[in-house]
Specification:
Layout: H1 3-7, E1 11-12, H2 16-20, H3 24-41, E2 53-55, E3 57-59, H4 67-78, E4 82-83, H5 86-95, E5 102-104, E6 106-110, H6 113-125, E7 130-134, E8 142-143, H7 148-153, E9 161-164, H8 168-176, E10 179-183, H9 196-214, E11 220-222, H10 234-243, E12 248-250, E13 269-270, H11 277-284
Parallel strand pairs: 1-9, 2-5, 3-6, 3-13, 4-5, 6-7, 7-10, 11-12
Antiparallel strand pairs: 8-9
Helix pairs in contact: 3-11, 4-6, 9-10
The protein binds zinc ion (ZN).
Length: about 290
């Protein structure tokens, strides 16, 4: 327990509504318009018309009020391809062989405890492999709504609940259920704002901590924020990630990973569990 946690009297955020706080109405309206616009763009598109790729749907959170939407999305994607784990996806790309068909690899960023509580039961039932990228300094902690970590680092907007991260026990239980635990750095700082030495520390310290707590080799890394050229430098940081002993580097750039693409620049598609199916159809049929 840190002194900070001792002061934290807030209950963990349990719903997306609580996560959004008072902005939830504005956010909902914006989301609705966005959904309608993308829905219109998705007309005539069909995931089934594209193939020979691995796509990485990824989420930050699945709260109690997002479970139904999350399950609907995963079941929808299952109609189009096979879900494979991060090790298999990495191996697939590294062999450089033809990718025949459509594959999905599901990942979650930040290591929020809601993913253990609300996403894991669903993916376990559906037998979907997944990966949690954890921020090692945050594991086992929770933060008050108005803390710098909540607001600035994780974009939390709630006012009455805390932001709660997975514990190491939950990480181990998730691994037992088939979840791969990867690194999302130790502090969630933007790599582009760090010196080479600082990036190296983020990569090595988080890897070591995961390996110590999990008793596994941590082979997968995901960059905070995720935009190449803005949040990290693919050439510099990709090289460091490789040198540190990781086998993959996940980004937040959208798109399909195809034959010849590098596992050190994985493209992924960010999703919110409340999005409607046309939004998924749009993103996953666009290369
Ligand atoms: Zn993140």
């Amino acid at each position: 327990m840190t002194p900070f946690e001792d002061k934290n009297k807030f209950k963990p955020t349990d719903s997306y509504k609580e996560w959004l706080g008072s902005k939830s109405t504005n956010q909902k309206i914006r989301g609705m318009f966005r959904g309608l616009a993308i829905g219109a763009l998705s007309v005539g598109k069909d995931i089934g018309n594209t193939a020979n790729w691995i796509r990485f749907p990824y989420y930050h959170h699945v709260f109690s009020d997002e479970m139904r939407g999350f399950e609907r999305q995963i079941r929808y994607l299952k109609n189009f391809g096979e879900f494979i784990g991060l090790n298999d996806a990495t191996n697939f790309l590294n062999t450089g062989k033809e990718i025949n068909g459509r594959y999905f690899c599901l990942t979650f960023d930040d290591g929020l405890s809601c993913c253990y509580k609300y996403a894991l039961p669903i993916i376990r039932d559906l037998q979907i492999p997944a990966a949690f990228y954890v921020v090692t300094n945050m594991v086992g902690k929770s933060f008050e709504p108005d803390s710098l970590v909540s607001r600035k680092v994780f974009g939390f907007r709630g006012t009455n609940t805390s932001i709660e991260f997975l514990t190491w026990d939950q990480c181990r239980a998730s691994a037992q259920a088939g979840v791969t635990i990867g690194s999302h750095t130790k502090s969630h700082r933007r790599l582009s704002e760090l010196t080479l030495r600082e990036v190296r520390t983020e990569l090595t310290a988080s890897k070591l901590e995961i390996e110590t707590h999990m008793g596994i080799v941590c082979e997968h890394f995901c960059a905070p924020y995720g935009l190449p050229g803005e949040d990290f430098y693919l050439k510099r940081d990709g090289q460091l990630v490789r040198e540190t002993g990781y086998r993959s580097f996940a980004t937040g750039s959208r798109g399909a990973n195809k034959k010849g693409d590098s596992s050190f620049a994985l493209k992924r598609d960010h999703l919110l569990a409340n999005w409607d199916i046309p939004q998924l159809r749009y993103f996953f049929s666009t290369s």
